[in-house]
Amino acid sequence: LMRPLQGCRGRGVVVGTVTLCLAAGWALQTPGGVSLLVPQPNINATVAQNILLSVEYSCRGVATIEWKHVSSWGTTSIVEWRSGNYVNISTVYKDRVTAFENGSIQLRNVGIRDAGYYFVTVTGEHGTNAYGTIIVNVYEIIYEDLHFVAVLFAFLAAVSAILICFMWLCNKSLHLFQKKATHKLTASTTEEIELETIEC
């Protein structure tokens, strides 16, 4: 009688331990079941480019996602939405922002004022939050450099055209000189022949 009882107790302890571990894991995930991954925390862009502020979140239940932009010009709310529900985009970003199910947003046609810090907050149903930050640097295309390249190209094209004209003139002059030399040679040969004929 003792052995089966000990066997039952042994199995009961194992089952109880596994159940306790699963319950503890579930209990830990339920209130604080919000996680957020930011794969690219720094983004470099040029003016008029489209950029993707990429994140991945996981949450038990419905989550609320909110994006804000902080720069030297101040703090601006960009967009807020609930998974599977409404999307509330700020009027400043109305035609420039697309929100995605995974929490990411795309910002179109960026300008210098779009540089700064982008904060994303994911809030679970139980009030737990996960935070992420992306730093965006926006650079202008330096038109002075392009202007210099264009001027240099035009200068080289002009020099090439002048050299081609100069070579053409030299070739033409050489051809005329050869023609005159040939004409003189022919004239002197004719004179010699005439002299010989007269002498004869």
UniProtKB/TrEMBL annotation:
PANTHER family: SIGNALING LYMPHOCYTIC ACTIVATION MOLECULE, V-SET AND TRANSMEMBRANE DOMAIN-CONTAINING PROTEIN 5. GO terms for biological process: filopodium assembly; positive regulation of excitatory synapse assembly. The keyword Transmembrane applies. The chain crosses the membrane at residues 12-29, 146-170. Keywords: Glycoprotein, Membrane, Signal, Transmembrane, Transmembrane helix. This is VSTM5 protein. It comes from the Eukaryota. Its main location: membrane. GO terms for cellular component: axon; dendrite; plasma membrane. SMART domains: IG (SM00409). InterPro entries: CD2/SLAM_rcpt, Ig-like_dom_sf, Ig-like_fold, Ig_sub. It comes from Vireo altiloquus. It is found in: Membrane. Residues 40-139 form the Immunoglobulin domain.
